[in-house]
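Input/output pair, single chain:
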Amino acid sequence: MMTDADAAWIRDNAWTPAMRRTFGEVPGFFVACACQYSGAECRHGDRCHRREPLTLPLGAVFQRGGEHAAMHPAPYRHPTPTATGPKRTRHAQVWYADRTCRWVCDCECHTEAGRAAVLAWLIKTGLYPEGSTEDELTPPAYRAYRAEKATRARITASRERRERAAAEQAAAAAAADAEFRATRTRREAIREWAAEHHWPIGKGRIPDAVIEAYEVDQEDGAGQGALF
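Output:
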């Protein structure tokens, strides 16, 4: 098993700029296994044709530059499964030698748990009467359930975006306040130091010469300290 540190080293030293750019924008393109694909809900209700597992390659060998898949020399072809049946391709695909990754449609119409959840929601919302059975579920019922889930997901995502934005604004305000307080504290320290060393300064802007002298004396600055 590759450690996180090893993976980070490979990304930094072996990946192409295009691969790093893609990883930064869509990490799952490189790190998600086919068996981890989820959330791709079927939009066809009980008419979905992807009921059987679809085996998928782990990835592909890329050409120099990391943007296009490498090709085996013609006329070489090797069989590979696709959603529309077996095909022969020249793409340099990468497959596990000891296992098979697969993707299965996780639409509710293909799972018992999904059917139960749909029926429970329909009864709870009053769309179906108490005592209804899963055999009574229809494609419109699934569509209504998925539409409700999509709406709830959008509401949740919107709320999370607002919360992140509020948190970022609060953090920016806190940082700005901390910077302001630090600047004010330093300015007061410079004024006290200047008064102690008899530098004539008023209540207005502190002269650059005074600031430089303070930095040399108190902050190990590299100014013209020898002049003061």
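The longest strand covers residues 54-56. The beta strands are 54-56, 59-60, 78-80, 87-89, 93-94, 101-103.
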